[in-house]
Amino acid sequence: MLSLVLATGQAPACSYIVQAQVTFEPGSAELDRSQVIKLSEWIGRSYAAYPLYTSAAVEAGASGEAPRETRNLARLRAANTARALRMLLRTELPIASASQAYRFPKNRFEESNDFAVVQLYPDVGRLKLPGCNPGLPDELER
Hints:
- This protein is an alpha+beta fold.
- Helix content is 33%, strand content 26%.
- The protein has a five-stranded mixed β-sheet with strand order 1-2-5-3-4.
- It starts with a strand and ends with a helix.
């Protein structure tokens, strides 16, 4: 499952973020062909929305009863998703990576704890995007 989410000034940290989520089958750390195609399409839509980015991030999760294996699975998901992202991006960006192990298959906020979230951060300055504080001129906010 992948969807384009554009977060703007409504976010508590007041930032522009383009985000997608990949859901993995339990126990799997590999992106399948359809996930890579959807990730590629999402990247295309992201560049259509904002043509310049400063960085990217991947956060992956895994659920399971064995803590060590679950942590390793989450790390592998993050690494594999970051690798796919690096190959699909149009420009080279720094990609931060994080992973989280869960004991239960899902929490109340997520469809599944077996996921990777990909985020792209638009270059607010070079794109001259409006600031998040409407009461101040943009140059005072940066």
